[in-house]
Amino acid sequence: MVLLDLELRVVAYDHPDAAKLISAVQQEYVLRYGDEDITPVDPAEFAPPLGLFVVGYLAGEAVVCGGWRAHDSDDPDFRDGDAEIKRMYVVDEARGKGLAKRVLAELERTARAAGRLRIVLETGTKQPEAVALYGANGYARVPGFGAYKDDPLSICFGKPIA
Q1: Which of 50, 52, 57, 114 could form a disulfide with 70 if both were Cys (CB 3.0 to 4.6 A apart)?
Q2: How far apart, in whole angstroms, are the C-alpha atoms of residue 108 and residue 114?
Q3: 3-state secondary structure of 33
Q4: For 3, which DSSP code?
Q5: How far apart are CA 86 and CA 122, in angstroms?
Q6: Own/partner pairs, 68-71, CB within 8 angstroms, 24+ separation
Q7: Structure pTM?
Q8: Could you tell me which of 51, 67, 70 has the C-alpha nearest to residue 17?
Q9: 48: preceding bond cis by omega (within 30 degrees)
Q10: What is 7-160's CATH superfamily?
Q11: Cα(32)–Cα(13) distance, rounded to whole angstroms?
């Protein structure tokens, strides 16, 4: 397998390239589920040291993104040291090249470096590519959390990273 020259940049959640990719992932949710993700998100949550957002570029084009935000047990659905992944997305023309796996590894690395102990995330039954990605990278099912806690289409995963 040829490794693509992917450049990962830490950007603000509301950076123009991030906003473009986040809008695209929201449209993907509309296609698959009929509506955008309603999980409350504050761009400030993705600012270091309690969060991070990355955009990956191929030949100068933004093609992949993802971020994490810190949670602790003061939120009843989380444990101290959790980092929640949000907005993982790869544009259509760049899928199948291992880019999501590389972003996921970077999110795990940076969350661990920030002292986080576990990564958690929510995806859905209509996203088999995401379910396969997380399963292949050591994630296991965890109890539901967040806005889709009781939604039958929601699947939550977690992975210790400490």
Answers
A1: 50
A2: 10
A3: helix
A4: P
A5: 8
A6: 68/107, 68/110, 68/111, 68/116, 68/119, 69/45, 70/45, 70/114, 70/116, 71/120
A7: 0.95
A8: 67
A9: no
A10: Gcn5-related N-acetyltransferase (GNAT) (3.40.630.30)
A11: 23
Stated as kind and residue range, the H or E segment containing 10 is strand 7-10
C-alpha to C-alpha distance for 18 and 22, rounded to whole angstroms: 6
* b (16+ CB within 10 A) / e for 14-45: ebebbbebbebbeebbeeebeeebeeeeebeb
Helices (H) and strands (E) in the chain, counts: 3, 7
Give residue limits of the domains in the chain. Answer: 7-160
Rounded CA gap, 114 and 139, in Å? 20
pLDDT (tens digit, 0 to 9) for every residue of the chain, 162 residues total?
455 799 999 999 999 999 999 999 999 999 999 999 999 999 999 999 999 999 999 999 999 999 999 999 998 899 999 999 999 999 999 999 999 999 999 999 999 999 999 999 999 999 999 999 999 999 999 999 999 999 999 999 999 999
